[in-house]
Design brief:
This protein has 13 helices and 11 strands. The protein is of the alpha/beta class.
Length: 381
């Protein structure tokens, strides 16, 4: 397998873009990524792309040009963007291509995601009972975790407070105003223990990354950010994930545990070597649970981490430096690629007001989605 570099990054701002389709937002991101790399659409040898609710990604050729390139549609829940990146990475790492593009975009209507039981091989009663509303599932799973490991509501608030504080400096973020801890904790309760500021919102946006072989990256003068690992895993026996209709008595692992372990092995490093991380934060509790599942701390230690500000921009391990899903919203097809975009930007030293100090060299991204899929990417400069 040959080395693969990220040579171009582009993003269409997340939030709401009236008058633009999700596909057009993806095309805007693709044009920005190619311009960043000094390339044009006819230079792309292949494409992988995905959207959950904004149409087939391959129709983006109508916007970018009918060059005849192979373009693979990807649909993999919240891991859609991460899966498009893995496909693109494999296409170059295998030696089949020298340069290509991964694109993710979406445009969700306002309100909660409208998942249907049949799409996840679940009986209709599961939806009729209201369990397809993910706010309820995440809250119930979080309540159990908090009881087992001593996590306080204040820590949930601190995660959201950090997200909005970081997003002030991120041009692509949706919510860019700081929100203080008291306001977050005393906001209307959505699903106990999570208030309205502790949930992300379905959103719009697009992200694109141009990948290249080492030879091509050197030609472009862009051989700086290398993909050290890119993996995706589904749930093992005994896990308890989104849309699970029951919990096994004999508990097993989790897809994030599998993906994280495989990524560290592929990269040849451990969690102690990571300089910054973007973790799936569908709600505040998800970021807390994923800190442990990705190996950055033990269950329960998040209380100390958050009280001491160790996940702040200037902390021991900065987490969700652009505000994550809480501040950016979650256009499903684009969200995973946004994390990698942010990490590549940070490794280039172009984070502006949210730049991680100390010359970071490694960056970690983790996406998680229904019905139990996790993807991890590790970048190195």
């Amino acid at each position: 397998m040959q080395d693969v570099y990220i040579v171009g990054i582009g993003i269409h701002p997340f939030g709401r873009s009236e008058g633009l389709s999700g596909l057009q937002q993806g095309a805007n991101a693709a044009r920005a990524a190619m311009a960043d790399a000094g390339l044009e659409w006819p230079d792309m040898e292949f494409g992988f792309g995905g959207s959950d609710s904004a149409g087939n990604a391959d129709t983006i050729v109508n916007e970018l040009g009918l060059t005849g390139l192979p373009f693979i549609n990807v649909k993999n829940g919240c891991a859609t963007g991460g899966s498009a990146l893995i496909g693109s990475w494999q296409a170059i790492a295998s030696g089949a291509h020298d340069v290509g593009i991964a694109i993710g975009f979406d445009k969700h209507p306002r309100g909660a995601f409208n998942a249907m039981p049949a799409e996840y091989s679940l009986p209709e009663w599961y939806g009729e009972a209201g369990f397809m509303v993910t706010t309820q599932f995440f809250a119930m799973k979080l309540q159990r975790y908090m009881a087992l490991h001593g996590i306080s509501p204040t820590s949930l608030g601190r995660v959201a407070e950090k997200a909005f504080r970081n997003a002030v400096h991120a041009d692509h973020a949706w919510r860019r105003a700081p929100v203080d801890l008291d306001t977050i904790l005393n906001a209307p309760m959505i699903s106990d223990p999570l208030t309205k500021y502790m949930f992300c919102s379905p959103a719009e946006g697009g992200v694109a990354l141009v990948l290249a072989s080492a030879k091509k990256a050197r030609e472009l003068g862009r051989d700086k950010v290398r993909i050290k690992a890119a993996v995706i895993r589904t749930r093992p026996p005994g896990s308890f994930e989104v849309f699970a209709p029951s919990m096994d008595i004999e508990r097993g692992g989790a897809p994030t545990l599998l993906a994280s372990k495989a990524a560290y092995e592929m990269a040849g490093i451990g969690p102690e070597d990571i300089d910054l991380a973007q973790l799936q934060d569908t709600e505040s509790g998800a970021e807390i649970m994923h800190m442990a599942e990705n190996g950055f701390c033990a269950d329960g230690d998040q209380e100390e981490w958050l009280a001491n500000g160790w996940t702040n921009i200037d902390g021991r391990l900065p987490v969700n430096t652009d505000g994550g899903c809480l501040a950016c919203g979650e256009p499903i097809g684009a969200s995973g690629l946004r994390q990698v975009y942010e990490n590549a930007l940070q490794l280039r030293g172009l984070g502006g007001g949210r730049q991680v100090p100390g010359d970071p060299r490694t960056a970690y991204s983790h996406v998680y989605g229904a019905p139990g899929i996790s993807g991890v990417t590790i970048l190195e400069r």
